[in-house]
Amino acid sequence: MPVLETKSIIKRFDGVQAVNKLSISFEAGKVTGIIGPNGSGKSTLINTLTGMISLDAGEIIIAGAQRLQRVKSYEVATFGMTRTFQDVKLFEQMPVLDNILVVLTERSVWRSLFEKHGAFHLEKAEVVLKKVGLWEKRYELAKNLSYGQRKLLEIARVMAMIHCGVGDINVIFLDEPFAGLFPEMIKIVTAVMKELRDQGKAVILVEHNIDLIRELSDHIYVLDSGELLAEGKPGEVLARKDVAEAYLGE
Fold it and tell me: How far apart are CA 147 and CA 145, in angstroms?
């Protein structure tokens, strides 16, 4: 059974169908790639599923049980979902370590700022920061990190939520996680994604790099003008002429 589905979802912006009657699903233990040309609806899809914007029509189905017309942003974790952003969102004036510690709580973000974190929290923060190569930067303010390091910190926060029992996270959306990364950083993110998949998580990857889509995705969806153009195994789908024409401009 899919852990997340959409049924004929629609989102319009000033008469433009950003997402048009889209029905797709995501399974546990798989990396699902979402590709398409600019303006195809990829970001709109993720934003509707994670509560950043509301749907105009259709349903979001979670674990085959909950049927929703709207997911609110503050409810995302309670529905077992988390995400990264194309434009990284961090607590800029806080050190790297505190950006991790702040999510190691089931309380509100405001209350967590004043929580006294113990050895358990520090140990878990150390684990995820070492995994992404940022432990030596733990006392650096987030705003002072390089672009690539900021993306790694955001991924570390996702890992902290999963590994430290903050909710029951089953679905992870990664929006352009490789953009602007050096090769060594790409290796780190690739390893994290494979680890999450092996843990049985549903990983949804929005990515322009076709080589990475081929390497990491078990299944892909191709969007064009807000509609589903193709789906299936990466090798088969990317070999299709209509996909090449839409996505590669050939």
Answer: 7
Q: Is the distance from CB of 200 to CB of 28 less than 8 angstroms? A: yes
pLDDT of 57:
96
Burial class (CB in 10 A: 0-12, 13-18, 19+), 82: buried
CA distance 99 to 83: 15
Q: Which two tokens stand for residue 213?
A: 């889509």
Cα gap 39→19, rounded to integer Å = 10
Residue closest to 150 by CA, chosen among 83, 77, 82, 87: 87
Q: What is the mean pLDDT of residues 98-117?
A: 66
* Residues 71, 59: Cα–Cα separation, whole Å: 10
Give the integer Cα–Cα distance in Å for 156 and 202: 17
Q: Which residue type is seen at 109?
A: V
Quote the tokens at residue 199: 């843990």
Residue 40 φ/ψ, nearest 5 degrees: -80, -10
CA 7 distance to own-chain centroid: 20
- The whole-number average pLDDT for the span 71-86 is 90
As a whole number of angstroms, the distance between CA 150 and CA 134 comes to 10
CA–CA separation, 185 and 134 (whole Å): 11
Q: Could you tell me the domains of the chain?
A: 1-80+205-250 (3.40.50.300)
The two tokens of residue 135 are 């432990």
